[in-house]
Every structure is written in C-alpha cells, then in structure tokens.
Specification:
The chain is of the alpha/beta class. It has two domains: 260 residues, 3-Layer(aba) Sandwich (Aspartate Aminotransferase, domain 2), CATH 3.40.640.10; 98 residues, Alpha-Beta Complex (Aspartate Aminotransferase, domain 1). Helix content is 35%, strand content 15%. The chain contains 13 helices and 15 strands. A seven-stranded mixed beta sheet has the order 1-9-8-7-6-2-3, sandwiched between helices. A four-stranded antiparallel beta sheet has the order 12-13-15-14, covered by helices on one side. The protein has a two-stranded antiparallel ribbon with strand order 4-5.
Length: 462
C-alpha cells in the first residue's frame, strides 16, 4: 500500500528569524522522523567522542579585527614572497604576469563549469583549444588534452594509456623520475595489474644499459623525466630508440615545462606521450595545489588519450565553432572501452597557462627559459666552489642542480631559515645514497643579489 509523504509545516516565530532551528522546530522534526531525542539521533557516535557542551569559542571580532588576526597567523608562515626561495622539485616560483589572472579571473571563466553546452561556451572552448594547440607546439606532439589533475596523476594516466595501446602489462621507470610521481604511479598500477620495474640512474641520468636489460616483451613503456628530478637533461633520443627497438613506447614526464622553451621538444626526439605538470606556466605555487596536469601524444594514439579534448568544427551554416570531442570517459562510452574516468579537471589553470604562453610568445618563453638557465648556472658554479660543497652530477642542467654537502642539508635549511632564506630539498628522504644531497632551484625570480646572499650564507657553514 502506497502512503503519501507527510507534509511538514514549520511555524517560525518572528523573533527567531535568523536562528536555524528553534526548540519547537527540532521537536517537530524529530517527531516526523520518529526519533525521541537529538541524543538518540546521534546514538551511533561513541559517547567518549561526542560533544556534550557548547564549544568554548572566543568572542566575535569585527571585520578589521578578523583581518588583523588572520594576517598575524599568516605572518608565521615562510613564503616565497617574503624570502628568496631556492626550492623546486616540481613546484616552481616563477613570475606570473598580471595579465594572466586579470583575464583568467573574469567571471565568465572563473565560475564556468565543464562546457557541455557548446553553443553557450564558445569563448571558453576556444581558449582551451588554443591552450591545447600551444601545448602541442611546446612538446612537439600532435594532440593535447584539456588538462589532467596534476603532474603525478598525468604521468600515471600515461602509463595506463601505454598499457592499453600496446596490450602489455609492464612499465620500466627511471629512478630519476620524481619520487612522488612514482608513488602515484604505483597507486594507479597496482589494482590494474601493471608491473613496475625501476631502473637506476648513473651520474644523475637514466642508465641506458639498465633500461635495455630490463625491457621485455611485456614492457608497454619506458618512463623518464626530462629534465629529470635532479635537474639533469636526459639523453631522450637514445632511450626512445631503445624502447622502440623492443616494441615499447617512450613516455616523457615533464615537471618543469618552461625548460621546453629552450630544449628540443620531446616529440622531436621520439617521445610517444608527454605528460607532466603545467604549474610553471602562469600558475602560482598555490600552497601546493591546485596544479595543472598536462598530456600530449601523437595523432595515431589520439583515441586513447584520457580526459577531454576540444576540437574545431563547423556548424550547419558553415561557421567555425568549438566542441568537446572524443570523450573517452566511462560516463560517455562503455566502461570497458573507456580510457579513463577523469572528471572535472583543471580547465581554469589550463586557461591561465594558455594566456601565459600567448602573452609571452615563443621568444618570450625562450627568454624566460634562458634566464632560468643562466641564473642557475651562476649559482651552481658559485656554490660548487665553496669548501664543503660540490656539484653532484656533471650533466647539463636547466634550473635545478644537486650539490653534496659536508653539513647535513636539513641543518643547512634550518640555518638559512634564520637568515630569511628558503633552502633546497634534502634528498636523503627519497634516495638513501644521496643523504648528503641537496636539490636547489634557481628561477628567473631570483636576483644576483639574492644568489650572492645565499652563497655568502653557505660560505660560513662547516
């Protein structure tokens, strides 16, 4: 027998207009749901952890008092605007031109959701299309998607994509790939039955002989990072040739895309999939997130790329328009045919990256990349010449490099913090054989005076 739901009318006294629920209203709601009391409603929560008295909160503050209080709390943090930052490792302190977020922060972009209705979202769709086009130019690939969650998940998605393309169940990964990217890769791979084989680095670059020895008929892809986690530029072509010679793909991870303003793009030396982090392109450090995962591939692999793609087409009247196309998500196609279940992505940050690349142009990107290269080289030479410090690896670097120190890197960072300087990353937590390794980053933001100040601070450390 079907019963009609009860109609509940809550009579709210005028004097309680801004109180969420009066005692009488609570009793009426409890009666409707058939619970005798509020305590019974929360009976499943153990009494030991249940709140039994009102929270002891401080008195309310006025607007200026709240701002002063929050500013005082924020002042306890060390941040890149208050102290010169020599920390990188996947999150980079680059200058973001004001035009980027002046445009990306417009309400039409900032509040927009996924542009399912193409007829209403031509502006956003065109902007993302331009981002994809510029990312293809930067990476030397044919197709780029509209963004992924972040660099780590993008690289893991690339491994899954390689598995699907080759129908093989193993990936060979260099230990010169960002350690946290490798952890995320393992999280993705384990439930999918993908076997991960790690190969060592030699003098800061991927050991090509070890790669050749580990590739088998099960290997779907060889995964490297370029420049790698140590900041060293990899010999990508040789590694791509080794992978292709055994029927595997070459996946190139990129954590610092500004390097591609100067280096040969991965597509030119044989990479099949490029995936990584786009934070350096017009996005701030953002306290570690949100960030921008990016992915690009060759045209023959286009139908297996995860996420969304914006394509150009024409309408019934022959006018050019932009639409979401090739949506390989399981919400749109059969689950067993889907390449990924990536949903709401980082389109706003992709938009910012597109504005950044358009504002700088090819020459501007090259100029910023050169500033990173030259300033890092200056710092590397100066620090490497100090007593108790030596450059760890001989290979060419972009804007990061590793030095080995006689003083524990953690202690160096503590001393630098007292000097108002944010130091580099101690590598011992990731690489036991590099317990004395210290990864430093020097971007275009760092001035010569700041670098000299760092060198002077290090000079007195023994």
């Amino acid at each position: 027998m079907r019963t009609e739901p009860q109609r509940v009318t809550l009579r709210r006294p005028a004097q309680h207009k801004y109180i969420p629920a009066t005692e009488a209203e609570r009793e009426e709601m409890l009666r409707v749901i058939g619970v005798p009391s509020v305590e019974a409603l929360f009976g499943d929560i153990p009494a030991a952890v249940r709140l039994t008295a009102p929270l002891r909160l401080p008195p309310p503050l006025s607007d200026p008092e709240v701002m002063a209080h929050l500013s005082a709390l924020a002042a306890k943090n060390a941040h890149a605007d208050a102290a010169p930052c020599f920390l990188g490792a996947g999150a980079y302190d680059h200058y973001v031109p004001s035009v980027v977020w002046a445009l990306a922060g417009r309400g039409e972009f900032l509040t927009a959701y996924t542009p399912y209705q193409a007829e209403l979202m031509q502006g956003e769709l065109q902007a993302i299309y331009e981002y994809q086009s510029m990312l293809c130019e930067l990476t030397g690939m044919d197709v780029a998607n509209a963004s992924m969650y972040d660099g780590a998940s993008a690289l893991a998605e690339a491994a899954v994509m390689a598995r699907d393309l080759t129908r093989r169940d193993e990936v060979v990964v260099s230990t010169a790939v960002h350690p946290e990217y490798r952890r995320v890769l393992k999280t993705y791979a384990t439930p999918l039955g993908i076997r991960i084989v790690e190969v060592p680095h030699r003098d800061g670059t991927t050991d090509a002989e070890a790669v050749g020895a580990q590739i088998s008929e099960r290997t779907a892809a060889v995964i490297i990072q370029h420049p790698n986690f140590f900041g060293v530029v990899e010999e990508g072509k040789g590694l791509a040739d080794i992978a292709h010679g055994r029927g595997a793909l070459l996946v190139c991870g990129v954590a610092e895309p500004l390097s591609l303003g100067l280096l040969t793009p991965p597509g030119a030396w044989g990479a099949d999939i490029v995936a990584g982090e786009g934070q350096a392109l017009g996005n701030h450090l953002n306290f570690g997130g949100p960030y921008l995962g990016m992915m690009a591939t060759r045209q023959e692999y286009m139908r297996r790329i995860p996420g969304r793609l914006v394509g150009a087409t024409v309408d019934v009247d022959g006018r050019r328009g932009f639409v979401l196309t090739l949506q390989t998500r399981e919400q749109h196609i059969r689950r067993e045919k889907a390449s990924s279940n990536i949903c709401t992505n980082e389109a706003l940050l992709a938009l910012a990256a597109g504005i950044y690349m358009a504002a700088l142009g090819p020459q501007g990107l090259r100029h910023v990349a050169e500033l990173n290269l030259y300033k890092a080289a200056y710092a590397k030479e100066a620090i490497g010449g100090l007593r108790g410090f030596r450059v760890a690896f001989d290979g060419p670097t972009f804007n990061e490099f590793v030095v080995r120190t006689s003083v524990p890197p953690e202690e160096i960072n503590r001393r630098l913090r007292r000097e108002g300087i944010l130091g580099g990353l101690p590598l011992g937590r990731f690489y036991p054989d590099l317990a004395d390794g210290w990864l430093l980053c020097v971007t275009e933001q760092r001035t010569r005076a700041q670098i000299d100040r760092l060198v002077a601070a290090l000079e007195g450390m023994r």
